[in-house]
Amino acid sequence: MIEINNVSKSFGEQVVLNEIDIHFEEGKIYGIIGRNGSGKTVLLKCICGLLAPTKGNVIIDGKAVGKDMDYPDNVGFIIENPSFLKHYSGFKNLKYLASIRRKITDEDIINSMKIVGLDPYDKKKVGKYSLGMRQRLGIAQAIMEKPDILILDEPMNSLDNKGVTDIRNLLLKLRDQGKLIIIASHVKEDIDVLCDEVYGICDGKCSLTARKDSEEIQADMVV
Ligand SMILES: Nc1ncnc2c1ncn2[C@@H]1O[C@H](COP(=O)(O)OP(=O)(O)OP(=O)(O)O)[C@@H](O)[C@H]1O
Ligand SMILES: [Mg+2]
């Protein structure tokens, strides 16, 4: 479903991704681990069409990202800190974003907010949201269009214990419905509980890690 073919990404002299080849299949949760600055976010951005690879390509459902389409339309994502209009309520923010993609209904927005534990009728402006509430809104945004692919960069950031449990259960449910989910995370437990396969990025290379290796890499990482 997602083919990463010989993808390299450099910024000036710095080679962040070096000839990466991975195929991701539907119905699985994939973990991406690696130290700070190893290239996890850059890889996810290349998949979502937010960064163009220096070399190689990303094919989603047979179409090349950035060539056959600017952005893949079957992908929901949350990358780094989601940004919202701070003078609008959560619902109004999602409604505004949904207007860009017309097939999202008010009911979809209401449901996705409820799923992540936010009150869709709360008039509170997003500028007054806590960090965890903003993160939940970001996840609601990623799922509101019911995409087949979810790309989540540190999705548990700022969530409390209940939030983490809720979102873990949600992701496992979506996986069982056949979605393809890719998660970059520093949290060892999220990777252990959630992921069917784990890839480690190191020195520009990305390779499948055995559980044991992934534990070693994670033990070495800053949490
Ligand atoms: N737009 C950019 N321009 C220049 N360099 C960049 C850019 N985006 C990322 N980099 C560099 O690419 C490298 C990988 O960054 P990336 O954000 O992918 O790391 P990461 O693995 O996600 O780290 P973290 O665990 O801190 O989130 C870093 O050295 C970073 O400075
Ligand atoms: Mg990152």
TrEMBL record:
The family assignment reads: Belongs to the ABC transporter superfamily.
For this UniProt record, the keywords arranged alphabetically read as follows:
ATP-binding, Nucleotide-binding, Transport
Q: Which SUPFAM superfamilies match?
A: P-loop containing nucleoside triphosphate hydrolases
The species is Butyrivibrio fibrisolvens
Protein name, please? ABC-2 type transport system ATP-binding protein
Tell me the SMART domains matching this sequence: AAA (SM00382)
Question: Does the keyword Nucleotide-binding belong to this entry?
Answer: yes
- Which Gene Ontology terms cover its molecular function? ATP binding; ATP hydrolysis activity
ABC transporter domain: from which residue to which, for each copy? Answer: 2-221
Domain of life, per lineage: Bacteria
Q: Which InterPro entries match?
A: AAA+_ATPase (IPR003593), ABC_transporter-like_ATP-bd (IPR003439), ABC_transporter-like_CS (IPR017871), P-loop_NTPase (IPR027417)
Signal peptide start-end: none
